[in-house]
Amino acid sequence: MLEKQVVIDKIEILEDGTIQTREKTRILEDGVVISEKSTNRSIIEPGESTSKMDQMVRDIAAVVHTQEMVQAYTRKKAEREATFAATGKER
């Protein structure tokens, strides 16, 4: 019997609090993996809603995305956008 599993196999936390995830799709035949492929990557910025995400991602975000982290991330993001708007160059 064939079975398809989609799992989050990698979660990384960057210095600025951004969480990166990678999904892997596995095809199993009688419980044995016969195919495996990384299929999707996503990022979760501090302050972004995680309500529709995997429970493990929600749990990690609840710890990492503190109010201080969200404020610092938002401030730095606004600074980068202002710099780009003024100069046309990323910092």
Annotation keywords:
91 residues, alpha+beta, 34% helix, elongated
Characterise the protein shown here.
About 35% of the residues lie in helices and about 40% in strands. The protein contains 2 helices and 3 strands. The chain has helices spanning about 55-65, 65-85; strands at about 1-15, 20-30, 30-45. It has a 3-stranded antiparallel beta sheet. The longest helix has 21 residues, at about 65-85. The model has no long low-confidence stretch (mean pLDDT about 95).
Label the overall shape: elongated
Query: What is the element string, with H for helices and E for strands?
Result: EEEHH
Poorly predicted residue ranges: none
* Number of helical stretches of at least 4 residues: 2
Structural class: alpha+beta
Provide the β-strand percentage band.
35-45%
The N- and C-terminal alpha carbons lie at a distance of 53 Å
**Number of structurally distinct domains:** 1
Instruction: Kindly provide the radius of gyration, computed on alpha-carbon positions and rounded to a whole number of angstroms.
Output: 18 Å
Major sheet details? 3 strands, antiparallel
- What is the helical fraction, as a range of percent? 25-40%
